[in-house]
Amino acid sequence: MSTSARSTTAESRQSLWSLVIPPAIWLGHFLVSYGVAALWCGTADRTAALGNLGVGFGVFTACAVTVIAVAGWRGWTRYRYPGARREAVPSHHRDTPEDRHRFLGLATALLAALSAIATLYVAIAVAVVGNCG
Fold it and tell me: d(Cα 82, Cα 50) in Å, to the nearest integer?
């Protein structure tokens, strides 16, 4: 194994924070989207339209999905980092730092995909509701 690959998989550099970021972004997006919509509709009358708030939701959703995509891409590159064994089906059953590194990368990429889909579903729900009634 090369020195650069060994340094990227060092046990001291392993962190679970990258695994937590995509679901945390989705959670933040969910809470802010529904919270702002509830506050907007709570202070307005029952027939009030969301108006320019929809554009804000769109921009906020685009930013959230972008951050989730970057986290997913970093997880995917962690899974397929240079210097890894090139097998037909990568294994994760060995107890080595490289396999743990790759497993965390794959889990991060999969959680990012799930979080991106969930974020888009939240955006669809906000977009479909055109007014507060």
Answer: 48
pTM of the model: 0.78
Angle in degrees, CA 15, 19, 23, rounded to 5: 145
The model's pLDDT over 86-128, given as tens digits with 9 standing for 90+, comes to 555 555 566 777 778 888 888 999 999 999 999 999 988 877 7
For the chain, the domains span 32-84+91-133
Task: Name the amino acid, one letter, at 37.
Answer: A
- State phi, psi for 5 to the nearest 5 degrees: -70, -35
Return the closest-CA partner of residue 126 out of 24, 32, 28, 25: 32
Other C-beta atoms closer than 10 Å to the C-beta of 101 total: 21
